[in-house]
What does this fold into?
Amino acid sequence: MALAIPATSNAASPHPPIQDSTSANLNSATDELDLGDTKLSDVNFTTPPPLLQPLAVGPVKTAGKCKYRHGGDNPHVSSGEASSHGWWVIVDNNGCSAKAKVKTRLQAWGCLSGIGCGWTTVKTGPSKSIKPGTSLRANVRVACASTKKVGWRNLVDVDLEWKIDPAGWDELGKVDLNCSPA
It folds into this structure.
């Protein structure tokens, strides 16, 4: 399990700063805090400092001559579960793959006493091979344990089939939901 620590701190944040700790390891490349054997039930989920943003597609990515973007929606509650979707769209179809493997990841804002606050990966959905566009989507769902208001974000990763493409996840939606992860 990992917490992603925001690259910039908010001086007015009600959350404590990350403290030096021998039990936590901060990966500066991904801004994720590796908590080792810490259980999800030990995390105090809450809302993050003000940072909510509207739905957006990711930046243009290039694989050979193919130009494309990751797409995703804001996390939302559906049938008692937090849910998000991911897809991909072609910007310039010059040798793009017919399909890509798309994964979505739900992260919730959580705090650990003595460690600090950050984004916690709650669940990564299965990889789904889909054509470009928004009608076919990958999905991830997490049951809500309660209606406590918690900050959620959607990350999407797209791997073009039979192409070498840039690695990495794009953050594509942040929202506060009345859903604390189970």
Summary: Residues 105 and 124 are 4 Å apart (CA to CA).
